[in-house]
Structure formats: structure tokens, C-alpha cells
């Protein structure tokens, strides 16, 4: 897997991602302590609102940022987003009101919503080979998992010698280091957007959503994101109740349980490059998604059994499985997006996926929390298991088993002399993507997810 780091451009971009994630982890701890200083017993409510604002910013702003990525130099956009994040983080220690925290968090996540999809769309252009890109996706998954495991430990060590406000300085340093690495890296020029036809910014943003919803495998990817969000919300929201109240274990076991979830995710990320070299994305992702509701259902059954039937080792085992299955669904997602959009439309495609996947989390987070608080963790696990099952089954139905890259289609609306038809006639095949010239998915064998019953009134790329 590490062989992909021989690519100098990717190595520097991966370094930028790692230092930015490390800084984000420090900010998570510091923000919790800041909320406690400002709100005391209401700190949980403040953090919950901040988390909701984060998801709302991702959902609303990412598509616009993806459209903007087509109109400004990619490197300038990435560096500007990092500098904006560093500036906002440096302001956080000086706030004195809760509303100021909300405002700065909204600005911080808006910058992240601009950075992440543009960054994701750059990697396939740096690593055009499928094998290299798959390894990069696995490394990215590992980086996220390591951030969740290492950053709290690093924060705890720093807090023994520094006040928590200095953690924000560490976060800003991470963003500044990321900006420096990106600024000094020569990025490939992105292709011209294949959907570019003079439309305004909001139309380009809407195009990314339409691309995702009009492509069967991307609709299935959204259903898979729902399954992962449902399972992940139970882990991230309900773990503290399961460890402290249900099992009666000390607070120090909460990070151990979350660590089991992260360990499962990391193990799957390490194995996926080899697995994906032998199996199709659909087979791996759908089967892993079906594991998620099964694991949650097992948890719900265990919690409703006789008192004492559920054990600490059982919780660790279930969280390990949920982490591995979630990683097996999420990691190949970039491959599916890259396959489903032309090079110039990748920013819009990644931004739409980023936005709608976070909408799934925006639904799952409060649902898991409210159910756990009012009806107990067993009910929360059962309802979220049903939601995960809905997503997994939806993906099975939406993603055709036969899903070739090239699709045959006709263009009866084009004149005989149109350049696209040269040497092909009215009936031909090519790698099919939704774009300004392909507004509908063509009907045909294996395209169960399509509602289209007639050829589109569009042209296609030669």
C-alpha cells in the first residue's frame, strides 16, 4: 500500500491531509473544554448544536464549493480554505459567548466543505491508475482512523503541560502546514468541466446533485452512505451510555470501545486493496453494508435479553465488526464516484456525494441520541438497524448487477452529420457519464435503477 507514496505529488498531498487531520483532532478536544467553560452543565447541548451546524454546513455549502472548484485554480482554492480554517481556529480561544462559538464553527466547517471535495477530486488526477488510486483511498481511510485514535492521546499529553487554548494553536499549525504543502506542490490542471455550458454557479451546484441522483450506482452509493451513517451514529452517540450505564464500566473504557471501532476500520482499510483487486466494488460494498444492520440487530437483541447477558467483550466485538464493515463500504466509494463522472465534473460529483452523505449523518445522529435518551440504547440500536437495513437493501436494488462502464445508446435527435456520430452511426457505445450532454441514463439490460424509457435528447463524448 505504501508504494503509492513514491509519487511525490501524492506524498505531499497525503502529508497535507495528515497534518490537517491531526490539527482537527486537537480542535475536537479543545472545543469540548471551551464549551464546558462557557456553558457548564449545558456543554453537551452546545456541542450537539455545533455538530449539527457542522453537518448543515457540509450539506448546504459543499455543492456550491464543488461548482466553485471549476472556476478558480484548484491550488488557490485549497490553500485559501486552509488559511481560512487556520484563521477561524485562532479566533476560538478569544470567544466569550456561545453564539460566537456557533458562528466560528459554521465558518470553519464552510471552509472544510470547500476544501474536502476539491481535495478528493484532485487525487484521481494525480493517480490515474486504478490500483494506485485504490491504495490512496485506503491510506486516506487509515489517516481518518488514526486521527480518531492518536489525536485524543496527543491532546491529553499536551494538556499536562499546556492550557487547552494552546490546542487551538496546534490546530492552526496543522492547517498552515497543510496550506504550505499544497502551495508548494505542482497540481495537474483539471480538465474542463464536461457540464460547463455557461451556467451560473447555482446551476453548476445543482448539476452535481443531479449527476448523483441520475446515475444508478451513485444512487446506490447514497443508500450505502445511509447504512453506514445509521450504524456509525449508534457507535459514536450511544457508546458512552452502553459503557457507563448498561455495562457499568469506568469512563476510561469509553475510548477503548471507540478504539475497537477504529481498529476494525483500519484492519479493513489495510485489506481492501488486495480484496478489490479480485472482487468488484459492488460485491464488496453491498455485502459489507448488509453486515451493518445484522450487527446492530445483534446488539439490540443482546440488550433486551436478561440482565447481564450483554458483556464488555461482546460490545468490543460488535464495534470491531461495525468498524470493519463501515470501512469496507466507505473506502471504495471514491472509485465509484470516479467511474461515474468525467474528469472535469469530478469536483461536482465529489461535492454532491460529500453533501448528501453528510445529510445521512444529520438524520442519524439526532435519531440515535433522542432514541437512546428517551427509550434506551436497545430501542436506538433496533431502529437504527432498520434504517441501516433500508439503506443496504436499497443499494442492492439500485445498483445493477450488470454495470458495464460502456453503455449502448442511440441519438435519434442528432443530424446525420453531427461530429459525435462520425463513423458510429446513430447507435453506439462509450463510457457513459451524466453531464450537460447526457441528461438521462439510457435504458437497457442490467439498468434496473433507471427510470428512463427513452433515449436522452443529448449528445455524447466521442
From TrEMBL:
Annotated Major facilitator superfamily (MFS) profile domain residues: 1-403
Chief subcellular location: membrane
Keyword Amino-acid biosynthesis tagged: no
Coiled-coil annotated spans: none
Region annotation (Disordered) ranges: 438-462
Membrane topology, from the record: Multi-pass membrane protein
Gene3D superfamilies associated with the record: MFS general substrate transporter like domains
Keyword Chloroplast listed: no
TM stretches of this protein: 12-34, 46-69, 165-182, 220-242, 254-272, 284-303, 309-330, 350-372, 378-399
Domain of life (superkingdom): Bacteria
Record's keyword terms, sorted: Cell membrane, Membrane, Transmembrane, Transmembrane helix, Transport
Biased amino acid composition, Low complexity: 450-462
Compartmental location: Cell inner membrane
CDD domains: MFS_MefA_like
PROSITE patterns assigned: MFS
Family designation: Belongs to the major facilitator superfamily. Drug:H(+) antiporter-3 (DHA3) (TC 2.A.1.21) family.
Cross-referenced PANTHER family: ENTEROBACTIN EXPORTER ENTS, INTEGRAL MEMBRANE EFFLUX PROTEIN-RELATED
Protein name: Multidrug efflux pump Tap
Source organism: Streptomyces tanashiensis
